[in-house]
Known about the structure:
There is one protein chain. The chain has two domains: 7-250 and 455-475, Aldehyde Dehydrogenase, Chain A, domain 1 (3-Layer(aba) Sandwich), CATH 3.40.605; 254-437, Aldehyde Dehydrogenase, Chain A, domain 2 (3-Layer(aba) Sandwich), CATH 3.40.309. α3 packs antiparallel against α6 (181-192). The radius of gyration is 25 Å and the shape is globular. By secondary structure, the protein is of the alpha/beta class. The strands form six sheets. The chain has a seven-stranded mixed β-sheet, with helices on both faces. Strands 8-7-6-9-10-20 form a six-stranded mixed β-sheet, sandwiched between helices. The longest helix has 22 residues, at 95-116. The chain has helices at 40-59, 62-78, 80-91, 95-116, 153-166, 181-192, 207-216, 229-240, 264-276, 293-308, 328-343, 378-381, 397-404, 420-429, 465-469, and strands at 7-9, 12-14, 20-24, 31-36, 132-140, 143-147, 170-174, 200-202, 220-226, 245-249, 254-258, 286-292, 347-350, 368-371, 388-394, 409-410, 412-416, 434-437, 452-453, 456-457, 470-478. The structure holds NADPH dihydro-nicotinamide-adenine-dinucleotide phosphate.
Amino acid sequence: MNQQDLQFIGGARRSGSGAPLSITAPATGAVIATGAGANAADAAAAVAAARDAFGDWAGRTPGARSDLMHEWARVLRERSGELAAVESVNAGKPIRLAGEFDVAGTIDNTAFFAGAARQLEGKAAAEYSGDHTSSIRREPLGVIGSIAPWNYPLQMAAWKILPAVAAGNTVVLKPSELTPLSTLLFAEAGTAAGLPPGVINVLTGTGVAAGQPLVEHPAVAMVSFTGSTAVGKRVAAAAAGAVKRVHLELGGKAPFVVFDDADPEAAARGAVAGALINAGQDCTAATRAYVQRPLFEEFVGRVAELMDRVTLGPVEDPGTDMGPLISRAHREKVHGMVERARESGAKVVRGGRIPAWTPAAGAYYEPTLITGAAQDSEIVQREIFGPVLVVLPFDTDDEAIALANDTDYGLAASAWSRDVFRTQRASRDIRAGCVWINDHIPIVSEMPHGGYKSSGFGKDMSAYAFEEYTNIKHVMSDITGAARKPWHDVIFQAE
Ligand code: NDP
């Protein structure tokens, strides 16, 4: 048994004082680590460490913070093999995905924010009143309390921590208690690179035992949350009581709109990759494909063929395309949604089953393709977070856009067409934080990620993330040196 200290507070690993946790491998069900979870006392200790570190960290020059973050990126690159192996086992990701997407993306993000730390921007200083010079200071907020989900543990930790610390904040991050191991390695790499103790702290525990006291702690200036819309609402309500700033990255239900002049092969391949990435446990995954009627049958047939070629297998095998879901409990939830769709008349064209190949306790599920579902049904409206693509037909462009917008979510979407006018209209009219044209899924560190509607507000990645993690201060300096100023006459006219 691998007994571990699961907390990282003040620059060192330590044990929690809460209930014991067992961390399992989703592919096999084997326990890979055990340790004590965090409770309110650990949350208080982590916040105290972050508060103690804040003054020094915020006071360093952007260049000094940038140098340490560049070194952090270098340490991560050096440890990329270990990071990929840990992420793969703990989150049930095929090793190719963990290495080429999760770890590579995290290193790139770290390098991006190392550079961006020196590029914080504000309005030009100027004499707007004529008698004063106005300037803008962009200042860190203090201690950020961050909460992350289990689907991309390393990347979510990076997205939360990097812009915050680049801007001079300190962070206490609570990963999902199912998947803390790569987050702990990420924080340790930062410390090895020279980030001062307390700048990054990791609090491993359940939402109720560790997350809630973190969100409610009076010394936490802002709460940054990525997870489900239901829990996000609770977190926002708790933060509102203390007038804390909140950043919410919530669920998604991305539409994938295929117009009749699209390249059918490109669209089918894009749909399979976009729906099955991370076994569909991706907030931007393609989940609802709307295909114009002339292409519908061909698209469904080709997607089914491609799904048949997706290899499920052990996550450490480089030949494995798709790994398990995060847990058997989550698989039950996904399967329940597929079964209810089937019972209500939808056709399960492929999948909808636990595969024949699966280690005894692994949470595998077959790539699943569904047609004939009603637009207002659960499988079309609610987040599945599994390898399930629903395909529905449409007739007119206006109908496609209306269907694409017809859910509570608005995180991401894609439109497929060779007609630039159509794709431009789709990118304008679809209400989502990201619209891909003739692709679905790619992300870059330089561009923002965030939602509309019930998918939340605020941006991760890119320089836009600094808007979340900084306060704007207006400094207005008199430049006349006069004791009696013209505007005083509005209030009093004494000599
Ligand atoms: P949850 O909302 O269930 O949990 C998210 C995090 O919140 C976990 O760390 C959880 O801890 C914690 N939490 C639960 N209750 C509380 C509470 N009362 N106070 C503070 N923290 C709490 O989401 P999942 O982990 O199941 O992740 C999947 C969800 O995340 C999906 O809806 C997905 O769309 C969304 N997501 C959104 C992304 C985006 O960028 N918009 C990116 C990735 C995922 P615990 O583990 O103990 O429950």
